[in-house]
Amino acid sequence: MSDGSRRALAQPGDVPALRHESRRRHSDPVEFHLDLGVVPRPPKPAQPAALQFFIHDPWKDRPVANYNVVHEKLFHAFVVSENLQFFKHAHPSFVADGVFQLPITFPTGGMFRVLGDFYPAGATPQLATQTIFVPGAAPAPVTLTRDYSTKTSENMHVSLVTIPEQAVAGMRTQLRFTLDPVDGLEKYLGAWAHMLAASNDLIDMIHQHPFRVDEQQMVEFEIVFPRPQPYRIWVQFQRKGVVNTAHFDVPVAELR
Q1: Do the Cβ atoms of 31 and 17 come closer than 8 Å?
Q2: I want to staple 102 with a disulfide (CB 3.0 to 4.6 A). Which of 5, 45, 92, 130 is the partner?
Q3: pLDDT tens digits, residue range 234-246?
Q4: Which residues does 63 contact at the CB level (< 8 Å), separation at least 6?
């Protein structure tokens, strides 16, 4: 089973050049403008807020009214805290031409990275990253080390093996997830799994779907890590109507 995979690379605070990796043919890629706001401003830790995504076309800077549905949704958003402890995969609501809105409660102060994934009609799939700063005490920085230990999630156990065992920047790495128990696996938002990989410094954010599922027990992704950094991998599966989220930490070595 095959799905496209894409990544966004950016310095914190920038709207990056968009990169796309897909096995499907699209029209020539153009970058749409994505601005990110938050209400109230400034947001407060542990208080309800909303992210607002403003999308304009690259030709006349007009709000974009029409979008293609991808994996059952018009917009996928990922929000990650600077200490990599907060992870949210959610789907903003379309509230006006060019505007999507997502309710959120930031758990702490500090920096949060936001990845937007959307597909304007008549264009190409878009990925864009932005940064939100929440006033208040920020969590202590985190340094990731290898963690391939089996994870217990909501109603399954998830194990990871990488091929090769040592991931290398710029080279293909296979991520093989083994699920236990094997019964009851269901597609979640049109795919057998969803994965987000974020570098330790939150510059790289990579959103992928699996290219192979073996009898609903082994789910495999193929990824090219762009830099020699440790990466946190969040992976989501649905079993018997329950979404399971597990994370692993993968150190990536420099190509020699």
Answers
A1: yes
A2: 92
A3: 999 999 999 999 9
A4: 54, 55, 56, 96, 97, 98, 99
Q: Find out whether 252 and 228 touch, Cβ atoms under 8 Å.
A: yes
Long-range pairs for 40-45 at CB < 8 Å and ≥24 separation? 42/133, 42/134, 42/135, 43/106, 43/132, 43/134, 43/135, 44/106, 44/134, 44/135, 44/136, 45/106, 45/107, 45/108, 45/109, 45/134, 45/135, 45/136
33, 61 Cβ separation under 8 angstroms:
yes
Look at residue 17 in the predicted model and tell me its pLDDT: 29
pLDDT of residue 133: 96
Instruction: Give the tokens for residue 54.
Output: 């403003």
